[in-house]
Amino acid sequence: MEEAKVVEAKDGTISVATAFSGYQEAIQDKDHEFVTKAVEEAYKGVDNGDGGPFGAVVVRNNEVVVSCHNMVLKHTDPTAHAEVTAIREACKKLNQIELSDCEIYTSCEPCPMCFGAIHLSRIKRLVYGAKAEAAIAIGFDDFIADALRGTGFYQKASMEIKMADGNGAIAAEQVFEKTKAKFQMY
Ligand SMILES: [Zn+2]
């Protein structure tokens, strides 16, 4: 059904673009759009007082399935990271326990727990904004310090992992600087 409206539908961009040399640019645009959305979620979570400055967006067929942020404070749950929350919500919404047809976009490089959850959900592709060091730099050190090792391990998994570049990455790194006053307690 998507094929019929591929020209006008935004989610048809990639399908059309594969036939042309602009394919990589189209992927970049798409990645930028969804990483930016994850970054917006990170700010939203802080503004609401729900948790730390982290956002995650699950996408299927270039459409947002769910857009979530860290809910650790709101749920009094140390496992309610943005990625875990997004995976739970996406599975519920799609009524399936595998997200192999989905991609996840995160504002920051996921911690080992979230890498594990992404791996278990069989998400096929991960794009993250800020490097873990950006979070560590403002004091999110305890739980995320192993994230780099985590990345190295899961790069061997069957998912594509990409760090966003350009403005998306810059905006993602800025999340921590702009919200750090509220998270000195961590
Ligand atoms: Zn996490």
Automatic annotation (TrEMBL):
Lineage: Eukaryota, Viridiplantae, Streptophyta, Embryophyta, Tracheophyta
PANTHER family: CMP_DCMP-TYPE DEAMINASE DOMAIN-CONTAINING PROTEIN, CYTOSINE DEAMINASE FAMILY MEMBER
InterPro entries listed in its UniProt record: APOBEC/CMP_deaminase_Zn-bd, CMP_dCMP_dom, Cytidine_deaminase-like
CDD domains xref list: nucleoside_deaminase (cd01285)
Gene Ontology process terms (BP): purine nucleoside catabolic process
Annotated family: Belongs to the cytidine and deoxycytidylate deaminase family.
Stretches assigned to the CMP/dCMP-type deaminase domain: 29-143
UniProt keyword annotations, A-Z: Hydrolase, Metal-binding, Zinc
Keyword Zinc listed: yes
Listed GO MF terms: guanosine deaminase activity; zinc ion binding
Name of the protein: CMP/dCMP-type deaminase domain-containing protein
